[in-house]
Amino acid sequence: MDKFAEDASSQLGRTGANSTSPVNIIDTEGENDNEEELEYSLGDEELGSEDDQLEGDTQAPVQRSNQDAIEGDTLDAFKKKKRARKSEAWDDFEDVEIGPQKTIYSECKHCQSRFKKTKTGTTSSLLRHRKNCPKRLEKLKIIEARQQKLNFPAADSSLNDHSLLHTGKFDMAAMRQSAAEWVVMHEHAFSIVEEDGFNLMIKKGMPEWQKISRTTNQKDCLSVYEREKQKLKHLLSKVKKISLTTDLWKSKNQKIEYMVITGHWIDSQWRLQKRVLNFVHIPPPRPSVAIADAIYKCMLDWGIESKIYAVSVDNASNNDTALRCLKGTFSRNKCLLAKGKL
Questions:
Q1: Are 184 and 224 contacting, i.e. CB atoms less than 8 angstroms apart?
Q2: Which of 134, 159, 170, 190 is 20 to 30 A from 199, alpha carbon to alpha carbon?
Q3: Three-class SS of 124-137
């Protein structure tokens, strides 16, 4: 306390005798870390109301809690972070807690088989189970069956013969056909064959390449379509029964109404096959007669009018009326299930 008084008196000496605002130092008994032990007052003003003191008391814990939060964040920054799981096993496994002791197991998402987690965290056993899990393999087969696509070239196509690549001869007609198949396969615009970058790339590998126009490419794409259509017609000629599904919708961008007709059948190896048979524009208000006419023309075009087994449509009233129009034709062929009952 004596040292504190000496420091205060020296401070007063530096301010000078002419100072008009003397500082009163009030000292109370107690420890120095208490907020009420040492207070400063200017002149004869009061030290503060009780509300101000209470307000100060309520703010102190908030400050301390913020300080604790900052210290906690600092400690979290130095904690060892968990390594990200990069193994393919975790695509089909998840951690579960079993029993009162909450033992952690790795459970298969498909067959619910459980494996106790090792201390080192290895996934060898999980990968072996993932490779041989029967339910997972069954699901993969279903997904692959649904995602079957029409690949170019076809299995029986002459394009599989790569002898042209070894003869050293350049065939511009074969290159035009390949370009058309590429455009159809990836749904490119016909004008892509006119781009300078495309032609420069082809020209570097094949100097004999001749630039083709979008009109020529469009004709080549139609030739590819007709070739694939003949292949599908030959395939449908061997089918005994085929079912049709229809779907009608309106394009938001083009403001045009379409109907797609899809054929479904079981091939000789008991595999479900599906092909889009027709994609036709039906102008509004989509009368039932127009729908029935489009379906019947599609059947005649593919030569399957006597092979229809069932027709599935949505619950629109126009579809019901359209099928009633076709019922007489189907009944004469005696090919529909349950005698063509709707």
A1: yes
A2: 159
A3: HHHHHHHHHCHHHH
Q: Give CA–CA dist 195/43, Å, rounded.
A: 89
Domain chopping of the chain, boundaries = 88-146, 158-231, 239-340
117-145 confidence digits (pLDDT tens)? 877 778 888 888 988 898 888 888 887 77
- Here the contacts of 168-172 (C-beta below 8 Å, separation 24 or greater) are 170/206, 170/208, 170/209, 172/208, 172/209, 172/210
How far are the Cα atoms of 11, 197, 270, 272, 308 from residue 239, in angstroms, in the given order?
A: 110, 46, 12, 12, 10
What is the 3-class SS of 231-256, one letter each residue?
Answer: HHHHHHCCCCCEEEEEEEEECCCCCC
Cα separation, 221 vs 187, in Å, equals 11
Question: In the predicted model, what is the mean pLDDT of residues 3-26?
Answer: 47
Q: Which of 11-20, 81-90, 107-116, 244-253 has the lowest mean pLDDT?
A: 11-20
